[in-house]
Every structure is written in C-alpha cells, then in structure tokens.
Amino acid sequence: MKRLFTLLLAALFSVAANAYDLQTVEIPSQYMQRGEMIHVILPDSYSDGGSFPVVYLLHGYVDNHDAWLHKGLAAPLADSHNVILVMPDTGYNSWYLNSPLKAESQAESYIIEELIPYVDSHYRTIADRSARAITGLSMGGHGALYLAFRHQDLFGFVGSMSGGVDLRPFPENWDLASHLGTIESNPENWEQHSVINLVGLLKPESLQICFDCGVDDFFYEVNCNLHLKLLEAGIPHDFTSRPGAHTWEYWQNSINYHLLFFTRGFAAATK
C-alpha cells in the first residue's frame, strides 16, 4: 500500500511538473508563399494571468517545428523558466535569411514581420526586446545570431548552439548555393549572409549574447573565430566550449544553459 501511494504521488508530481499547454498554429505567410507551422508552449502559470517573456527556438537543417518538441524535449522548460516558447518552421533549409534567388524563401522577413507580430498579438507576451530572446541549433544557431544582430531593436538576448556562423567555408554543403548562388559567381551573397561578418553592426551591451559549440563539432572552428572577432570588437558575450559533437545529446544539454542565461537576463531587465 505504501509503495502504491508513493507511485501515485510520483505520477501526480510528474503531471504537475509538466503542465504546460502545447498549441500548434498555422500562420499564412506572404514571404514564404505558404502556411508556416509553429508550436507555442505556454507555461502552466499562463492560466493565472499576467504577461510573459518569449524565447524563440530555431530548428536545424532538414528539420521543422517538431524538432525542439520531440527531439530536443524542450517543452517542459516553459514551466521551469516561466516563459513562452515558440518553435517555428521556415522550411528545412531556409537558413533564416531572405534568399536573393528564391522569392518563396524570405525567412527573415517572415519571422520579423509576420511571426513575431502574430505571437505578440495572439498571446500575452511582454512585447519588448527586454523580454524577447532567440536561439537555435546548427542552421538555427546561424539564424538566431543573424536575425538578432540585424534586428537589435527586437531582441535583447540571443544564443546559438553549434551554429553555422560562417557560411563561406562550406560552399558545397546544405543547399546553401540554392539560396545564395555559387560562391564563385556570387561571393558578395556569402559575405553578406555570414554571421561573422555582421559583428560590425553590434555596439557594446546592445545584445546579451551566449553561444557554444562542442569541441568535436565540424562548426567548432568557425565558432572559435566568431568568439575572437567579438573579443577584438569589444563586444561582451559568453562563449563555451564543451565536450560533444553535432548531436541532439549535446543540444538537449545546451538548451538548459541558454534558458538560464535568458531568464536571468529577463529578471535583471525588470528590476
């Protein structure tokens, strides 16, 4: 009987500890020329009223809005950090930029002009950069930094996990040429759309930045290079090297550090 009571208590605790509300929505997008799916994770405390910070979680190459939900197992973080999580889909290989070649792949404009206004108008968000963060893995890590560096008026916090922060060393990979043209014929596209070349847009303290990469990851060198460039520019940031490679095991661990970094920042910004 005592063992049964313990099991029931554990089950009830588990339900209470993961009482977030998952909502799945399709947003019509003129910039992507189709409907774009998103998951919105509302913390359990959302039902009590009030407004909440928002963290956007961007998926990697050949994935979609389900990635952080089913592979990253990130939904419970909405409860543990008392934030709204938004998991968008912009196509499996958008790289979160406005393609100079594809009119149907204007992912930057979709996120900035359609997704964020939709979330702020349909949910009780704190619609201010001081309570808005963005992060992602791999292609999504590139996307998070790319968008935040270019839109510092919208984001106060940004992260990247194993991000492809310099596209130029990878001219034959991940369908990049389909968006940018070949690096031989369109070198300016590769220069302009690489995060490492956007550091000049930053001012000290304009963004709170955290990014990390596993030492066995194929993006490790370009992340180290971004770290050095930020140091040279005098831009404060957190950069972490950890054991690990380009895997979900790594990202499931890393996302916890990002949420802690963001929520501490949100709390400091409201004091």
Note down, in words, how this protein is organized:
Helix content is 37%, strand content 18%. With 271 residues, the protein is of the alpha/beta class. Helix 5 links the parallel strand 5 and strand 6. Mean pLDDT is 92; it is low at 1-16.
Tags for this entry?
alpha/beta; 9 helices; disordered N terminus; 271 residues; eight-stranded mixed sheet; single chain; 18% strand
How are the SSEs placed, and which strands pair?
Elements: H1 2-17, E1 21-29, E2 34-42, E3 54-58, H2 67-71, H3 77-81, E4 84-88, H4 107-122, E5 132-136, H5 139-150, E6 157-161, H6 176-180, H7 187-192, E7 208-214, H8 220-232, E8 238-242, H9 248-269
Parallel strand pairs: 3-4, 3-5, 5-6, 6-7, 7-8
Antiparallel strand pairs: 1-2, 2-4
Task: Sum this structure up briefly.
With 271 residues, the chain is α/β, with parallel strands linked by helices.
The proportion of strand residues reads 15-25%
Largest beta sheet: what is the strand line-up?
A: 1-2-4-3-5-6-7-8
What structural class should be given to the helix and strand makeup? alpha/beta
Count every beta strand, where a strand is a DSSP E run of 2 or more residues: 8
Radius of gyration: 19 Å
Low-confidence stretches: 1-16
Distance between the termini: 49 Å
Largest sheet descriptor: 8 strands, mixed
Output the number of helix runs.
Answer: 9
Shape: globular
Order of helices and strands: HEEEHHEHEHEHHEHEH
- Helix fraction, binned, reads 25-40%
Mean pLDDT: 92
